[in-house]
């Protein structure tokens, strides 16, 4: 049992190193998968004196690499929904999230994008307001001032990296950390609680630097430097708070070296307050039971170690739920092709099992999601791996996954957080003797073996307890729970709260976090309950049946409307020719509320001040993209990462590029002014139809130009055409994509046109540079006359509205991030069908395919295409496109005739078409087929022809929503139906 005495790090540094204690808390005995699970919650096992290791801190989130980028836009465009999100995640008496961990940006991409560096040069004043993570923490503190904030680094700014590579960069590293910390304190009123001085996901903790950093921090007395911007009164409070910063180490991935190091290094043990590692649930198990390498993290957490002191142990980076639970319940990954419900690998129940197993095996009492909020555009690395999706700030749509309910089973039935210095906060303790996990795996865990998985939390005063049980199998599991030496009071009633998938005929969320039963102990003192397959339950002695917060449902998702604004880029407007515009001045934007004073109040700031001059709706993949003053004094967008700051250490090394817009945009013209203030050179690119990837070359089509006037038209980074215009200080670039035709413009003149035999049809706009300061202004995205500008909706292949018949494999576990919601439905069986309801003038079948599939296509019960060929396509692209339907509600059925089809999603085309549409091709087709005699042909072939001809005639007379591509398809379908007419036997 952990000893109550507490040592400072200086005292421990002077202590004599002793042999490690061998007495590590034993886990409950293993259970058979078929036996009832018997749990005894013994009050004598509730360690009220263990204030660090066994206190349940709940959940945290990691903000880094653009994962929080679009939250700044939600706050500005839909503040009501943004602040609702803050309340849902961070607010209330039982917050879901207690900690915001910020990975400090370096304008480079080490995951899904880049976060801005707070200091791009040694002499630049730190600006934490550039970072979405520091802002998120400030706003979260308005509903939970006790929220913890921690920071760490991965890639460092080049001015730090240069000195670090020489072996002399400790002062530069410390300066970057300190000035960032103090800037956040000056702007938002909170002091960072934890710092990891070491690099993220190291395999060899830099122990000497950790010690140097701790000593430097503890002995730093300089807080009056004008660079910090602190008033005389702030300096004193800042100094005290700064010296209270704790050290966390070492954020290893796959290795577990910091634990043994702390157990054998007295000075290090005294300096480090918390340890954490990533993507494994297990402790280290090598060596004998009394060695520093055998269960070191359990020894640290329980205090069963030489020093008799317990330490915090974190699961310091772990995944969220992969895909959307609402979609993955339609999978066929269970036994015999059954659904796994809300369970399965990488599911919401997987997250619950990770939390349980990481505690049972390595005593980690804090799980940090990377990320909890996905606020970056889909198609970047690690898409669809979060609890909350917030990707359309113009619409305000936010999706709360069922995984939120699942994780609330841990946080809403206990008092979570960090114990105070006097041990009076009442934070609940985890109970090792009443916690166990038998599920398989160490990262993507698998509960299908039916083994028990449970974790117990208890009030340190022993008045209440909660046991969370996870059953991610297709079998029921019986639990028997008994309380001993607990002061439960006169009413022994236990509530059972459950989350699982809907039963047939129910709404999809009917069984999400609801009170399933109230039970009382049997004569032998045991509470007995059968846990349903693919579910999580919390057994609690707390009375939550009437608690409003516990019964509160998560907000419903709003519709994901397409980005289609007026000329200001602010107001939704489908009636004009503009899709989006940004002059980077933001006079149309109002003031924005920002949390400050450690959450005590909100202040109103101007738009750009509130966000550190970060531009609207741009998600950076690499580079320092920021609004600044141009030569004329007006705002322009700069990419500042030049040769002196060049990215040399990022995981994903790309030239600077950023993305803006809607993945559903199809036929449009994008244009922007570019200029080159860097005398050393430069390159500017403008791309269209970007759907996935994180490089400038991931735009399907782009044009690039340099100050000399040399230009190039690219398809996915491959040069198609090159040329030269007169050299100038700046140019206006444009790319127009109309179906398969792509045209590049320089200063209004068409310089190249390309016809793509396998066109990429949809996607966003990309801006790119090389490593020189480059300026952009007056971005405009416009509709193209006669063409449908965008798809109105996307329907996932797993959506409940999509019906399947025949043999299909429908998978979500271990899904590819480049597939929508990481799910696909696949068939290679002739006769297999899929039926999709939609509204619009056409539909695209999205998925990565080899082009072997041949389809029969029916719309509203009528044949529109026989033996239609598909196209070999990459993920997120259309393998088959249907156009020319009357604008309205339809049902499309696709029947596989031969080959193999992979379905990812379906996009339905908008009926919004501007300008005249030339129907000449359709008139020509009608003239070509003439007026054949019905009696000359078989009934079936004539029916297809008659439908095609009737449809064509109606379109010529005038059809709402008909565009140029629809005209072409109607003409082709008519001629094809004519060619397939079969004459009757004479």
Automatic annotation (TrEMBL):
- Could you tell me which residue ranges the Glycosyl hydrolase family 59 C-terminal lectin domain spans? 620-783
**Domain Glycosyl hydrolase family 59 catalytic, first and last residues per copy:** 56-412
Q: Which SUPFAM superfamilies match?
A: (Trans)glycosidases
The cross-references to InterPro entries, in alphabetical order and at most eight, read:
Aldolase_TIM, GH, GH59_C, GH59_cat, Glyco_hydro_59
What's a Pfam family in this record? Glyco_hydro_59
Q: The organism sits in which domain of life?
A: Bacteria
- For this UniProt entry, which residues form the secretion signal? 1-26
Q: Please state the Enzyme Commission number of this protein.
A: 3.2.1.46
Keyword set includes Cell membrane:
no
Keywords from UniProt, A to Z, are:
Lipid degradation, Lipid metabolism, Signal, Sphingolipid metabolism
Q: Which family does it belong to?
A: Belongs to the glycosyl hydrolase 59 family.
Q: What is this protein called?
A: galactosylceramidase
Q: Which organism is it from?
A: Streptomyces doebereineriae
């Amino acid at each position: 049992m952990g000893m109550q005495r507490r040592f400072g790090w200086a005292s421990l540094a002077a202590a004599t190193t002793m042999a490690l204690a061998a007495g590590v808390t034993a886990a409950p005995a293993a259970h058979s998968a078929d036996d009832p699970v018997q749990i005894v919650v013994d009050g004598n096992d509730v360690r009220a004196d263990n204030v660090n290791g066994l206190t349940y801190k709940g959940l945290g989130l990691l903000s880094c690499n653009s994962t929080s980028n679009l939250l700044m836009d939600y706050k500005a465009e839909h503040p009501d929904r943004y602040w609702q999100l803050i309340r849902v995640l961070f607010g209330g008496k039982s917050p879901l999230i207690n900690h915001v961990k910020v990975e400090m940006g370096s304008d480079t991409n080490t995951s899904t994008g880049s976060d801005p560096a707070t200091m791009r040069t040694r002499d630049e004043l730190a600006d934490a307001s550039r970072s979405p993570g520091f802002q998120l923490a400030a706003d979260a503190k308005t509903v939970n001032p006790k929220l913890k904030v921690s920071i760490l680094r991965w890639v460092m700014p080049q001015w730090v990296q240069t000195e670090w590579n020489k072996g002399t960069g400790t002062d530069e590293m410390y300066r970057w950390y300190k000035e960032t910390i103090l800037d956040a304190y000056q702007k938002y009123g909170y002091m960072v609680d934890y710092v990891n001085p070491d690099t993220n996901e190291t395999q060899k903790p830099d122990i000497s630097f950790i010690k140097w950093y701790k000593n430097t921090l503890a002995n730093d007395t300089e807080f009056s430097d004008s660079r910090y911007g602190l008033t005389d009164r702030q300096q004193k409070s800042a100094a005290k708070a700064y010296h209270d910063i704790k050290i966390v180490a070492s954020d290893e991935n796959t290795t577990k070296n910091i634990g043994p190091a702390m157990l054998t290094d007295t000075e290090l043990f005294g300096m480090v307050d918390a340890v954490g590692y990533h993507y494994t649930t297990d402790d280290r198990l090598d060596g004998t039971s009394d060695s520093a390498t055998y269960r070191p993290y359990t020894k640290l957490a329980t205090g069963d170690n030489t020093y008799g002191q317990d330490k915090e142990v974190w699961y310091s980076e772990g995944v969220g739920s992969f895909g959307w639970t609402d979609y993955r319940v339609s999978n066929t990954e269970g036994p015999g092709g059954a659904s796994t419900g809300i369970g399965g690998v990488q599911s919401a129940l997987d997250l619950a099992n990770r939390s349980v197993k990481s505690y049972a095996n390595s005593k980690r009492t804090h799980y940090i999601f990377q990320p909890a909020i996905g606020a970056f555009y889909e198609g970047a690395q690690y898409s669809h791996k979060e609890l909350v999706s917030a990707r359309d700030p113009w619409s305000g749509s936010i999706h709360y996954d069922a995984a939120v309910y699942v994780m609330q089973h841990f946080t809403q039935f206990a008092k979570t957080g960090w114990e105070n210095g006097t041990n009076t906060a009442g934070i609940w303790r985890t109970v090792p003797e009443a916690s166990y996990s038998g599920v398989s795996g160490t990262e993507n865990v698998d509960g299908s073996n039916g083994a028990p998985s449970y974790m117990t939390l208890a009030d340190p005063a022993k008045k209440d307890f909660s046991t969370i049980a996870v059953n991610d199998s297709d079998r029921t599991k019986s639990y028997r729970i008994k309380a001993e030496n607990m002061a439960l009071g006169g009413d022994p009633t236990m509530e059972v709260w459950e989350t699982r998938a809907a039963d047939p005929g129910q709404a999809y969320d009917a069984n999400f976090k609801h009170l399933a039963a109230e039970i009382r102990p049997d004569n032998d003192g045991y509470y007995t309950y059968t846990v349903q397959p693919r579910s999580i339950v919390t057994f609690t002695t707390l009375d939550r049946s009437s608690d409003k917060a516990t019964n509160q449902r998560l907000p419903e998702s709003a519709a994901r409307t397409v980005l289609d604004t007026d000329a200001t880029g602010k107001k939704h407007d489908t009636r004009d020719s503009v899709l989006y515009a940004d002059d980077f001045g933001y006079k149309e934007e109002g003031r924005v509320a920002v949390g400050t004073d450690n959450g005590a109040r909100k202040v109103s700031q101007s738009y750009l001040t509130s966000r550190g001059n970060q531009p609207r709706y741009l998600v950076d993949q690499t580079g320092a993209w920021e609004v600044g003053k141009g030569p004329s004094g007006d705002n322009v967008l700069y990419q500042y990462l030049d040769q002196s700051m060049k990215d040399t250490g990022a995981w994903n090394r790309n030239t600077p590029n950023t993305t803006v817009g809607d993945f559903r945009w199809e036929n449009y013209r994008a244009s922007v002014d570019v200029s080159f203030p860097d005398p050393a050179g430069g390159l500017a690119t403008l791309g269209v139809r970007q759907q996935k990837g994180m490089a400038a070359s991931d735009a399907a089509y782009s044009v690039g130009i340099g100050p000399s006037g040399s230009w190039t038209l690219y398809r996915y980074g491959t040069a198609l055409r090159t040329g030269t215009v007169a050299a100038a200080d700046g140019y206006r670039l444009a790319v127009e994509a109309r179906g398969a035709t792509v045209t590049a413009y320089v200063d209004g003149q068409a310089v190249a046109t390309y016809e793509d035999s396998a066109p990429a049809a949809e996607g966003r706009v990309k801006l790119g540079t090389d490593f020189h300061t480059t300026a952009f202004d007056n971005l405009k995205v416009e509709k193209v006359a006669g063409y449908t500008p965008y798809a109105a909706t996307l329907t996932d292949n797993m959506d409940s509205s999509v019906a399947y018949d025949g043999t299909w494999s429908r998978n979500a576990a271990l899904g590819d991030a480049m597939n929508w919601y990481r799910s696909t439905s696949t068939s290679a069986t002739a006769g297999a069908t899929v039926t999709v309801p939609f509204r619009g003038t056409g539909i695209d079948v999205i998925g990565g395919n080899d082009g072997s599939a041949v389809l029969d296509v029916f719309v509203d019960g009528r044949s529109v295409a026989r033996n239609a060929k598909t196209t070999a396509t990459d993920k997120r692209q259309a393998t088959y496109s249907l156009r020319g339907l009357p604008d309205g509600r339809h049902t499309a059925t696709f029947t596989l005739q031969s080959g193999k089809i992979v379905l990812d999603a379906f996009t339905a085309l908008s009926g919004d078409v501007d300008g005249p549409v030339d129907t000449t091709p359709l008139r020509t087709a009608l003239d070509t087929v003439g007026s054949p005699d019905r009696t000359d042909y078989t009934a079936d072939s004539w029916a297809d022809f008659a439908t095609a001809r009737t449809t064509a005639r109606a379109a010529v007379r005038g059809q709402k929503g008909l565009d140029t591509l629809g005209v072409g398809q109607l003409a082709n379908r008519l001629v094809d139906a004519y060619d397939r007419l079969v004459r009757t036997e004479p």
